[in-house]
Amino acid sequence: TAEYRLTESSATVLDWLGVIRLERYTDAFLSAGLQTMQECQQLTPNQLEHMGITLPGHQRRILASLNKTQSTQEPLSVSPEREQQMVNMNPTWKPQPVPRELKPEILPENPPIQVPRARPRTLDIQPPAYFRNDGDDKASPISPTTISNKNAPPLPPKAGVGPISPPPLPQRLLVESPGTFVNAVSSLGGDLGSHKESFYSVITREDISQQSNVIKKGWLSKNPPQGALYYQRRWVRLDSDYLRYFDLEKAVYSKGIISTAFITKVTAVGDLKFEVVTSNRTFIFKAESEDDRNEWVTALEECTRGRRHSSLTSPLLSDNKGYLELRGIRSKLYTVVSSDKVFLYKNIDDYLIGVGITSIEMNVGSVKETDRRSFDLITPYRVFSFTAETEQLKDLWVDSMKNAIGEALSTSEIAEQIWEEPSNSFCADCAAPKPEWASINLCVVICKQCAGEHRGLGPSISKVRSLKMDKKVWTEELIKVFLFLGNEQVNSFWAANVPPSEALTPSSCSEDRRRYISNKYRQGKYRKYHPLYGNQKELNDALCINVQCSDLLETLSLIFCGADVNCSTGMASCPTPLSLATTHSQLLQAELINLNLNTEIIQEMDPPHYQPSPCVSHNGFLFKIASMARPITESKNKEEFSRRWCTLNDGTFSYYDSDKNANPNRSLKMSEIVCLVVDLYDYTFELYSESERLYLFGTTDPDSHKEWVKSIAKSLIPAAAEPLLRLNFERIGKLKYKDGLNLQTSKVGWFALVGSTLHAYLGSSRGEKIHLRKLNELSIQQDNEVLVLVEKGRTLYIEGERKLDFAGWCGAIQEAARSGGDTLSEQQLTETDVPVIVQSCISFITQYGLTSEGIYRKSGVNSRVAALCERFHRDARSLCLKEGEHQVDDVSNTLKRFFRELEDGLFTSEHARDWLTVAAGDLENSKISQYKDLLNRLPRVNKATLQALINHLYCVQCFSNLNQMNLHNLAIVFGPTLFQTDGKDYTAGRAIEDLIQHYIIIFEVDEQQLKIQLEEINAILEMRKRNTKFPVTPSFICTVYLEEKDGTIEQSVQIPGSMTAAELTCEVLDKRKIPFKDKEYWSCWEVCDKEEMERPLHYQERVLAILHSLGTNSHLLIKKHPGMDGMLIYLSTKSDASKHGMMKFREERSILGLGLSSGSFHDRYFILSSNNLRMYREIRSNRPEREWPMKNLKVYNGIKKKLRPPTWYLCCDTQSEMKEWLATFLSFQYDGNVWPQDGLQQTRVSRVLPDARHGNVSLIPLRGSENEMRNSVASFSQDALSVSQSANHSG
Q1: How far apart are alpha carbons 1190 and 1286 in whole angstroms?
Q2: SS3 for 1152?
Q3: Residue 1112 DSSP code
Q4: What secondary structure does DSSP assign to 667-695, as a single string?
């Protein structure tokens, strides 16, 4: 055969791209004027991106190949088969170098998607030529407003992309038969010493599946390693790239792989054996028959023919390679990340000769970092735990494997095509950029967040598919449908009547998305109604007429306004609209109809909150008592029960005098039942109805009881909350609730109480768990009609719509929230997993007992200690330790007794002996290391409690000059207490002494935070030294800054619950001895550093509520109000109370993943009244675009970079205009009382009255730590200002 030889410097782009299997980009290179490989040497990633090569893996493959060719000048041999293949792929290609001056071929324009035709006016079916001869393109007779002419010029070609249809798959070198394998590259060489790879050495590529292109597979016996005498039975599989052998037929990961490119010879060697020979290894396999052996030899010879590799060159173009430790393997493995796979080799030598262990397909993998140098590669079949040599190398490995996963899953060609329609590059529901999902039957392109809510509608309403992962779904016709319509046109139907207040933004919460998407697609609330809406026959006829032309939008409108896609056309040859569209060659119409053959008709009425429950049937005898309107408070005698025949069928529970009676005594619809209560001990259950009646039933055996409870619960609970049925619940039912910032409207949720956990389904398919023993506060408010559950960062309000079942829920939840036993995990816990009793005692002693001499050594009064222990055990959260009412020694002994009587102990019975063994050692460094190891073995609650206690004891011994409790004295007291020993030796004390002494190292404490904590304790002691008596009411110590945030001008101030902003201002100024001057308006400001905004607190505003709402990057600042004087003058001269005028408006829109704002300012006309703020598009507008209640607005100064929605900005032209708006805001919000008439009184707050609304929260030193501040619910129990729904920024 003739060979055409070409040096790399003159290699054509087509030759080069063919070798690295990226022929699809040939046109992109030619369009850019690049015709030879030499001209491509200086390409950069940005240039490749501009050429249309966007996939990161393809960019890396091209650049790596260019870099490696600079040191390689080996000529390329192109076989006649490959030459013919290249000619077939590109007829203009000829086997000679392309002259440099040759101009690139001009690419033809993309053909139009589909030539639109006029819609016929009758149902008469004529040959398709009838429509082709009709040159007029007339408007639709059905919907005059619909534009049927969709003719548009063809889209211009995009560099490297080609036509709109999906790009052709690259040609594979392997054809159906192994014998037709084409020699891609032959006679290649390399240099082992330099470890350089020529781009011609790339053999494996596009097909990522190990199972694909399997040439032969079966059982063989393989020669064992190290020359053992017996053979090992292996499942062997041969594909175009590798010969792989496995332990089992179903195994996913092989025991070994041999690259076919490195197989030099395959020989039959007698006794059913054959040899597979590489450059320096020989593998012997034994078949089960002579014919099987011959088939293997033939298949291997044909597969490897022409693929012989140089012994010094690796077949893989790697993205990353090197040694990694794999858990479970003694030695390190040489690991190679190549394109969309990860290969494992025993060492680098095996890698260079193409003999490995296994390969991992990354299209099913995910990467998770587990340690400083470790990470896991997780697949459905195995978890590979790797460890790199350094943290930096670990990061490189993680990045390269994530890139491999991205390349394995990436099919962004389809997304790029869909986005060529400009409106498709933004979500049809929330306008988020670059949406990667679509509802293929609704014809909308949507973002990931909206796609999740679309799935909640069900496939009968919205068929959600990915633009990047569901490649097979995206046929050429479907892509053309989305390009033909586009989100803008489709939304002219779906979103024709969306109120501005209901529109979504990219930052909208999931609840808003769910409501909007359900309204839009399930109920069709915003759609543009068709003129024929409501007339079924007319709609069906119009659909049959319209599918004969190209007006897809009209078809979409007809279908989703009620036209039946399965209606009869009345003609035998084309009985359905689908066949009618196909007959007239309207492929896009046929595609649209086909996608909606089973689409659910839009519901006209609001759907129920939950889907109805499935029908359940059950019957049998039960014992019941007469229904009552009050809760059951005592056990019932057996004589009070009567035997009744009961049935449950079709959602109705009925009971009869006997099983022979036909008429029931009473029937209860399950939709009227609101709660089911189960008593497992008495085999009874209670049913609560909406009519405030309680029905008690019982059985005689546990099996019957279980079946009845299961059946009733299944009929009661909707499908959306079905997981609740799998719980061993004590109480289950529905309640109204409010949560988040929207406290105006109540919603219905389904709840189940299991032990100390409240499971809830709050209007979504995702269940939630509320750990009742970890609540910050649990209280009943508003005349026993609202149960308030406060946990970290959230408050849930459960409303009592019915008194009877609500009283039962309140009692059960309160009982479940109490301590349930004597182990640590059964105690009421703080959000940091420390028992409330421990935190309360530590806080009390920190404030009142640090200077008490002999603290923890002196005994308290035993009766008072026992009473405290009992109260803490009953409900630790409700007990507030107070100075004067409780004694320091009583509290300290309560804490010690708690630990001594603790079941299983603080160090656990399993590990306590190990702690004492370590304490008996002599080597300090070794002991510290062992302590840290033992600490990590403790349960989560034990570990958190131990750290809190040792932190407290560390602080106590820091003040040993006052309390005489040094390190040794504390160890003597707490050693036997914590280890629950008799104290005869000092081993337990030595352990506690070590933990206190090395607290910073063992618990890895931030020394700066510890220093701040000690400074705050000093501040408390200083205040007590000055005889500043702490109030009995709950209070906090907080750092307040003066004029600017600077450590030199900060002031620690006690903040009682009723302190106002004016009182705090006077307190700080008095401590700093700063006098008032005339026209100086000193105010307290809430300052948010991260968001760059500030807000002056109204002088009557409660400070403690604001304090609890602050984040870690916020603080309180006392400074002068620069604009108050002008604002007061403006208000005094203002005749009209309202305010109106033009302002610039911008609503926050954050670009997902970037944290950047995408909104822009627009001129709007505003009217501010005492009730609300209205925004109009212009002065002449009659209806406002938006409206906000005045009482729910917070006004901030400055511009915030990133803010949680709902957020919007107002911008005034001048400072004076801004002051006028701010003054009007404050005047309306505080009924004209903007500033006290007599000015601030420069007096200290001598006494503050208790504020019962703040709950039982102990005094804890604070510096704005969010975790500590969330321990109170003051910010949730204030007026609407503290839970405002909107934040307004003026700047």
Answers
A1: 10
A2: coil
A3: T
A4: EEEGGGEEEEEEETTTTEEEEEETTS-EE
pLDDT, residue 140, reads 40
Other CB atoms within 10 Å distance of the CB of residue 566: 13
10 Å Cβ neighbour count for 76? 23
CA distance to 167, 253, 496, per residue, from 208 (Å) = 18, 14, 45
Task: Measure the CA–CA gap between 798 and 747, rounded to whole angstroms.
Answer: 10
* pLDDT at residue 1046 in the model: 67
Contacts of 47-52 with CB under 8 Å at 24 or more apart are 50/159, 51/25, 51/159, 51/160, 52/25, 52/28, 52/158, 52/159, 52/160, 52/161
CB 1109 within 8 A of CB 1275: yes
Residue 340's nearest CA partner among 403, 279, 289 is 403
Residues of the chain short of pLDDT 50, as ranges, are 1-9, 71-212, 309-314, 603-613, 1029-1033, 1149-1158, 1201-1206, 1242-1291
Centre a 10 Å sphere on the Cβ of residue 831 and count the other Cβ atoms it contains: 16
Instruction: Pull the structure tokens for residue 404.
Output: 């491999």
Instruction: With beta carbons less than 8 A apart as the criterion, state whether 430 and 1151 touch.
Output: no
- For 604-620, the pLDDT digits (tens) are 433 334 444 456 788 89
Judge contact between 34 and 102, C-beta under 8 A: no
Distance CA 705, CA 680 (A): 8
Give, in order, the Cα–Cα distances in Å from 671 to each of 518, 622, 687, 817.
23, 21, 12, 30
Euclidean distance between CA atoms 1257 and 830, whole angstroms: 12
- 350 CB-near residues (< 8 Å, 6+ apart): 334, 356
C-alpha distances in Å from residue 632, one per residue of 628, 689, 805, 812, 816: 9, 15, 11, 13, 18
Phi-psi region of 271 (alpha: psi -120 to 50; beta: other; left: phi over 0): left
The CA–CA distances, whole Å, from 935 to 908, 942, 1171 equal 11, 9, 58
Please give the structure tokens belonging to residue 363.
């299209």
pLDDT for res 740? 66
Burial class (CB in 10 A: 0-12, 13-18, 19+), 213: middle
Closest CA to 1029 of 1062, 1056, 990: 1056
Q: How far apart are CA 932 and CA 948, in angstroms?
A: 16
Is the distance from CB of 900 to CB of 974 less than 8 angstroms?
no
- Residue 935 CA to residue 937 CA, distance in Å, equals 5
Quick one: which of 105, 127, 88 has its CA closest to 32?
Answer: 105
pLDDT of residue 161: 36
Compute the distance between CA of residue 729 and CA of residue 309 in angstroms, rounded to an integer. 67
Q: Is 319 helix (H, G, I), strand (E, B) or coil?
A: coil
> How far, in Å, CA of 784 to CA of 171, rounded?
75
Nearest to 51 by CA among 107, 89, 3: 107
DSSP string, 43-110: --HHHHHHTT---HHHHHHHHHHHHHHTT--PPEEE-HHHHHHHHHH-TT--SSPPPTTPPPPPPPPP
Which SS3 state, helix, strand or coil, does residue 538 take? helix
The angle formed by the CA atoms of residues 36, 42 and 46, to the nearest 5 degrees, is: 110
Could you tell me the two tokens for 1226?
């404050």
| Residue 887: other Cβ atoms inside 10 A | 19
Residue tagged 């063994």 (tokens): 917
Strand partners, 733: 675, 751
- pLDDT given for residue 377 in this prediction: 92
Q: Tokens representing 959? A: 């003040």
Burial letters 108-144, b for 16+ CB under 10 A, else e: eebeebbebbbbbeeeebeeeeebeeeeebeebebbe
> DSSP letter at 191?
B
- Packing angle of the helix pair 967-979, 912-919 (nearest 10 deg): 150
